[in-house]
Structure formats: structure tokens, C-alpha cells
Write a structure and sequence with these properties.
- The protein has helices at about 30-40, 60-65, 80, 90-95, 100-110, 130-140, 195-200, 220-225, 260-265, 270-275, 290-305, 320-330, 340-355, 410-435; strands at about 20-25, 45-50, 70, 115, 120-125, 145-150, 150-160, 160-170, 175-180, 180-185, 205-210, 215, 230-235, 245-250, 255, 275-285, 355-360, 360-365, 370-375, 380, 385, 395.
- By secondary structure, the chain is α+β, with helices and mostly antiparallel strands.
- It has two domains: about 5-210 and about 370-435, FAD/NAD(P)-binding domain (3-Layer(bba) Sandwich), CATH 3.50.50.60; about 215-365, no CATH class.
- The strands form six sheets. It has a seven-stranded antiparallel beta sheet.
Length: about 425
């Protein structure tokens, strides 16, 4: 893995190497991808990854329940664009530079085969995130990328020949090193203050808010259904014109599952403004709207007239959830379909297609923390990811104001942005070489 800080940077700004140097700040997916691709494209470039913590690729490790959902299957770039609530136009261009197909080829060229699941999520065939970590670490080692852990960057100063980076390795002393290029890949921050060091060097920041979170619902009756998953559910927030559809999981605190997480991403800013207090409506049978469901129930009262309504429902709803809906609709499971009253039919239709709950707060989804916010795209050249104000300074990954819904989209942004920055640094080096 990475080396201790004692073995890194045993020189200061006065001891500049003749080789050009790229410092990547952040040892996550986007930082690694920028580093290894820049090193591969430029064998003479000295590439160093600086990581503040003692862990590398930590989100890769936990993604997809430890399997690493590293991208999403798509045949055309257009298939993926709607998955990015922030940065959609940027991602359209980025994915033409490095698509999910390119991600699959990059890893397969290095012996890591991927597979796609029915919902489009892509994983390594091994179903182990360590496979992806090992691939990236092996590539870094092969290409001579230096990795330094537990180094905190305090400040960046632009000078006539490049940059001075002020760092702290956990001790009382500060160190200054030289870099010709810097790539910032520090990810998102849960608090706005986490971006202050970037504001200090003149960058425009969109304040961060959480994305990809579950809904807390203080309803003990719903909590009794903990563990029930409905594979196809419509989700709507009453105060917003945003809808989602997909699997929903009932938990001991409220609602989770892909449809809820996607909704939280799409409405991240609006829900933050509401202080995470709002009404969510669920359609447990999204092929029907309420009036159509009422007509369908009338038909079932004839077709299934002698059958007990609690025995089996015709809407592919789990038995526990179905009996819960019947109870809310004042229908006993041992009643026959023919004996359902008009009033109960109306309630049943409403509770299937427009089951409303009051959300009071949120819960972060496992360890896969994602934020909406970061370096504003207007402050960078979106074709190269280079700062408009500070030449030689690049940004990749979640530190940018770009984020996607769950399903591998955020990692695809990491790979694509890392690739773009690595190639832009190569172009800059080639330009410098031709001038000199």
C-alpha cells in the first residue's frame, strides 16, 4: 500500500527534480485513475499521490456491499445522462471522452472482467471490491506512482515555475514541496468548512448538501414491516414534481432501497431546504394509478368473488405488505373479495397507489457518503478540468459539483474525470516540450 510520510518528500522546494512532477491530492478512485493514467501516458513524469488518512480507495472497498459497483451498463452515452442531477451537461461531454464501455475495457485490459446485473449495475466477476483495489495498486506500482499516506495539505501557492504545496505529516513541522501540476481529488465534504482551503486559493464553491440517503419515518406500524422489499414501487414527494420507480425496502427507521436513494439524489437540495421534513407517497403497484386501481378492484371482486382477499393478491405485493395494506383499508384478510364494501374498495385503492407517510429526517446510506456541491463547474475548463484562474491545477471526482444517483454512476464520473485530467496534463506537457 502507501508509504509512511517519513519516506516521502525528503526534499524541499529548493531541491527540485529535473523531472516534471504531478501531485495528486486524494487517494480515492478519481485520484488513482488520474495518477496511473498520467504516469502511463508520460513515463518521464514523476507522479505522487498524497492521502490525508491511512487508507486508500476506501469507497471502492465498501461500494456495492463490498462487491464494488464500479459503473453502469449502457450502450449509448445518452442512456446515462439523466442519472446525474448535478453536472448533467458536463457528464454528457465527459462520457463521450470516457464511457462505461471504456471503463469495462480499461479494467479487462488489465485482467479484471466485469459483469452486468439485471438492473444495469456492473461489478467485477469476482464480486470482490478488492479485485478493483488490487488492479489499481498493481498499476500504480508498475508505473512507479509514489503513494504517501497521512499527509495533510494545508495550502497551495502558485509561483512562476509551478506550485508550492504546504503540508503537515502529523508532526509539528510543516513541509513545502514543489509541483508542476496538481490534481485535487479530495472528494466531497459533509460540512461547508471542508472546502475553505479551496476558497482560500480563489475557487468558487457550491455549498455541499447530503445526497444518497434514506428516509426516517416515525411510524411504528410501518416499522413492523422491517425487511419487506417491494421490487417495483413508485415514489413521489408531494411538494415536488419529482418521481422515481424501483425497489423500496422498509426498515426499522423508515424507507430505503434504490428508488428512495435515487429520489434523495434528485431532490437533494430541495429536501435540504425542507429540513428533511416532507410527505412521501408510495405506489406499491405502479402500473396503476388510483382511479384505474379502483376499477381493477371492482373487476377482481367479480373474478375472485369467493376467494379470501388475504390469501393471495393479484398485484405482486408481498404477503406481509399486502396484509398491512388490508388492515389500513379496514379489510379483514378472511373476507372474500365479493364482500368488500365500496368504502373499503376506495380505501384499498388509495393505500395501494397513494400510501402517504411523513418523513422526519434522514439517515446516511451505509458508508457510501455522497454530497451534492463542491467546486463550481463554471470555474474550470470543462474540457480539461483545469482551473480557469490557476493554470496547472486540475479537479477530478466528487470534489466537483457533480453527483449521480446510485447504481455505479458516481464511480463512472470518477473514472471519466480522472481520465480527462490525465490526458489534459499530457497535452500540457507536450505543449511545453514543443515550446522549449
Amino acid at each position: 500500500m502507501g508509504r509512511d510520510s517519513d519516506f516521502c518528500f525528503n526534499y524541499d522546494v529548493a531541491e527540485m527534480s529535473q523531472r516534471k512532477k504531478l501531485i495528486v491530492i486524494g487517494g480515492g478512485a478519481s485520484g488513482f485513475f488520474c495518477a496511473v493514467n498520467a504516469a502511463r501516458l508520460n513515463p518521464g513524469l514523476e507522479v505522487v499521490i498524497i492521502e490525508k488518512s491511512n487508507k486508500l480507495l476506501s469507497k471502492v472497498k465498501v461500494s456495492g456491499g463490498g462487491r464494488c459497483n464500479l459503473t453502469h451498463y449502457s450502450e449509448e452515452v445518452a442512456d446515462m445522462i439523466d442519472a446525474y442531477p448535478r453536472g448533467k451537461n458536463f457528464m454528457k461531454k465527459a462520457l463521450y471522452s470516457f464511457s462505461s464501455n471504456d471503463t469495462e475495457k480499461w479494467f479487462s485490459d488489465r485482467g479484471v472482467l466485469l459483469k452486468s446485473e439485471s438492473d444495469g449495475r456492473m461489478f467485477p466477476v469476482s464480486d470482490k471490491s478488492q479485485t478493483i483495489i488490487d488492479c489499481l495498486m498493481k498499476e500504480a506500482e508498475k508505473l512507479g506512482v509514489e503513494i504517501c499516506l497521512q499527509i495533510e495539505v494545508l495550502d497551495i501557492k502558485k509561483n512562476e515555475v509551478g506550485f508550492e504545496i504546504v503540508m503537515n505529516d502529523g508532526g509539528a513541522l510543516q513541509h513545502i514541496i514543489h509541483a508542476d501540476f496538481i490534481c485535487i481529488a479530495t472528494g466531497g465534504h459533509p460540512k461547508d468548512a471542508g472546502f475553505n482551503w479551496l476558497r482560500k486559493i480563489g475557487l468558487d464553491i457550491e455549498p455541499p448538501v447530503p445526497s444518497l440517503f434514506t428516509f426516517n419515518i416515525p411510524d411504528k406500524n410501518l416499522h413492523q414491516l422491517m425487511g419487506v422489499a417491494n421490487p417495483k414501487t413508485g415514489v413521489k414527494i408531494s411538494q415536488l414534481k419529482i418521481q422515481e420507480q424501483g425497489p423500496v425496502l422498509i426498515t426499522h427507521w423508515g424507507l430505503s432501497g434504490p428508488a428512495i436513494l435515487r429520489m434523495s439524489a434528485r431532490a437533494a437540495k430541495e429536501l435540504h431546504q425542507m429540513n428533511y421534513e416532507f410527505e412521501v407517497k408510495l405506489n406499491w403497484a405502479p402500473n396503476f394509478h388510483e382511479s384505474a386501481m379502483l376499477e381493477e378492484i371492482k373487476i377482481k371482486r367479480v373474478q375472485l368473488s369467493k376467494q379470501y382477499i388475504g390469501n393471495k393478491n393479484p398485484f405482486d405485493i408481498s404477503s406481509r405488505l399486502w396484509n398491512y395494506i388490508l388492515e389500513k383499508s379496514r379489510i379483514r384478510p378472511e373476507e372474500s373479495w365479493a364482500n368488500i364494501s365500496t368504502e373499503s374498495s376506495n380505501l384499498l385503492s388509495k393505500n395501494i397507489c397513494s400510501d402517504a407517510y411523513q418523513v422526519k429526517g434522514k439517515t446516511t446510506f451505509k458508508e457510501e457518503f455522497v454530497t451534492a456541491g463542491g467546486v463550481k463547474l463554471e470555474s474550470i475548463n470543462q474540457a480539461t478540468l483545469e482551473s480557469k484562474k490557476i493554470p496547472g491545477l486540475y479537479f477530478v471526482g466528487e470534489v466537483l459539483n457533480v453527483d449521480g444517483i446510485t447504481g455505479g454512476y458516481n464511480f463512472q464520473h470518477a473514472w471519466a474525470s480522472g481520465w480527462i485530467a490525465a490526458n489534459a496534463i499530457t497535452d500540457s506537457l507536450n505543449t511545453q516540450s514543443s515550446i522549449s
